[in-house]
Design a protein that fits this description.
alpha+beta
Length: about 140
């Protein structure tokens, strides 16, 4: 036990340094995160994702498996450290070496269940990411 604890601690320190490098190298990146929840997955894929700005990377959680163009260990660390988590979908952005997050669960389900405006949801997403361009929504 005495030997194992310091090794685990040193591995964690090493990982945190690599994660800090990941955050700095990906400064300005935007992430739209969603999961495999049955009532929303298909709607998101067909109705929302095609209208997201091209500057937004998609992170899909299929159970415990992360599908992303980025290192899954670092994305997992980001998801584990969410400060404003309130179910998915969720937004994350990296600014000045820091991860900033926001849940859009409530606005999304207002669109899905109450037929609220998709454009309003896309505007909320773009405002969070500080993006101006909105794709045509039908």
């Amino acid at each position: 036990m005495i030997v194992i604890i310091p090794i685990g601690y040193l591995r964690r320190i090493k990982f945190e340094k690599k994660y800090a490098v990941f955050l700095n190298e990906n400064n300005g990146k935007n992430f739209f995160c969603y999961n495999n929840r049955k009532d929303s997955k298909q709607y998101l894929k067909e109705t929302i994702l095609p209208h997201l700005n091209d500057e937004i990377d998609i992170v899909y959680l299929d159970g415990n498996k992360i599908e992303s163009d980025h290192n899954s260990n670092f994305i997992s660390e980001a998801l584990f450290g969410l400060k404003n988590y309130n179910k998915f979908p969720h937004l994350m952005k990296i600014r000045n070496g820091k991860l900033i997050d926001k849940s859009i669960n409530n606005p999304f389900y207002n669109v899905l269940n109450m037929n609220k405006s998709k454009t309003e949801l896309l505007n909320t997403i773009n405002v969070f990411f500080e993006l101006n361009k909105i794709k045509n929504v039908t």
